[in-house]
Design goal:
Distance between the termini: 87 Å
Strand content: 5-15%
Protein name: Tigger transposable element-derived protein 6
GO molecular function, one term: DNA binding
Keywords: DNA-binding, Nucleus
CATH superfamily of one domain: Ribonuclease H-like superfamily/Ribonuclease H
Pfam families: CENP-B_N, DDE_1, HTH_Tnp_Tc5
Number of helices: 21
Number of strands: 6
Largest sheet: 6 strands, mixed
InterPro entries: CenT-Element_Derived, DDE_SF_endonuclease_dom, Homeodomain-like_sf, HTH_CenpB_DNA-bd_dom, HTH_Psq
Strand order of the largest sheet: 4-3-2-1-5-6
Radius of gyration: 28 Å
Shape: globular
Helix content: 40-55%
CATH topology of one domain: Nucleotidyltransferase, domain 5
CATH class of one domain: Alpha Beta
Amino acid sequence: MANKGNKKRRQFSLEEKMKVVEAVDSGKRKGDVAKEFGITPSTLSTFLKDRAKFEEKVREASVGPQRKRMRNALYDDIDKAVFAWFQEIHAKNILVTGSVIRKKALNLANMLGYDNFQASVGWLNRFRDRHGIALKAVCREDSDRLMNGLGIDKVNEWHAGEIIKLIADYSPDDIFNADETGVFFQLLPQHTLAAKGDHCRGGKKAKQRLTALFCCNASGTEKMRPLIVGRSANPHCLKNVHSLPCDYRANQGAWMTQELFNEWLMQVDARMKRAERRILLLIDNCSAHNMLPRLERIQVGYLPSNCTAVLQPLNLGIIRTMKVLYRSHLLKQILLKLHSSEDQEKVDIRQAIDMIAAAWWSVKQSTVVRCWQKAGIIPLELTDSDTEVAASEPEAASEKLWHSVALATCVPNEINFQDFVTADDDLIISQEQIDTEVIQGMEAGENTDEAGSEEEGEASLPQQPKITITEAISSVQKLRQFLSTCVGVPDAVFGQLNGIDEYLMRKVTQTLVDSKITDFLQTK
């Protein structure tokens, strides 16, 4: 009797509870699931009843998966502020000790108006337990030390171990890499020197920048629709625009945030679910990537910190090729304006979006595969000569364009095309929080992702007139007529033109049919 009374009650972690719920969701009988996990039917019923709470906690990543109880902190707003700060620091691999966290907690508590809060060792331990934090001494690696013995060992260890396990169950078609880059979309050749090395953390230059997210698979057969983040939510140039070659979002810094990245992830996850696919997504540990939602069809793998320069396929030439092609589009526009003696107008967001998307879709499959091979994630198959040809194709034509424009616009001799392409490589692509921003994020009604007004950066640009479908069809006919006077036009060009013509004709026919039916119904 005494032993029975002292029987210890078993507690389950959040991770264990979710496994129980998932087992029931898989179609197993509840009785079998209860036996498998050694729980009573009433405990199983309680887990199923509370599943919404468990899923919410996992989605928000507000507690560690090993937590067995879900009590909130006494000073909940201090707890949230400290955790937001910790995530930023952790994403940068900066050394964090218990004493550092306690000092930061006292500082943030003071800013929040708490005079009696004490960041005791007991509070620190409870904070760690609430969020599943293991305090390890992690030092920031200097980028200059990347390829020393430590860096090489780290890369080799990842190639020999973790990546093999990650890709084991996936074909190259289902292994993806996603990454962001900043773009000074209005940059002119003569202003290259001023932009070089600019991090653009905000201010006036935020109006001149975009952040673009790209994603592609290892076989080069699939490039996902780009996500472009600007500063203006409703720019004049996008008025009456309902279709774009990318997804467009906005916030004050024109950078990637956790909310935007997670929204994009959920959309990709939903697409994969509809297609009945499972994919592996490789990403870096940028601060926008460190609180992921619950995903059903995407397995996320993190690249080793501070090694993305040699391990991330998009960083090994894919994004660079996109920028070469984008800058080439800009140079062609400038050259056409110079030839026609027209005034140079700033590129607006709509034009930039079109050119970025066109550049992205123009990146060749061979370029994508080459960069995945260079990262050591898929086997090397191309020869060295093939690699060199693939790398030089887009840049050779662009160099000629550059020399023509540079000469006409008096670009200094010390600036070359490579400087023009890489001028925005140092742009900050995700928000870096400071204490005041952490506190602002805790205040009710404050939205740190609020986009700039529709007027900012757009007032000087003329509003484009709305083009009717009749005018669009007429333009296609004129283009067809022009091409008929040219020599050696590829069949693919005529095929693309036919596709546009068919789309427009279907649209106008459907509009006429719908309007006739409406007229008929109105007369009855």
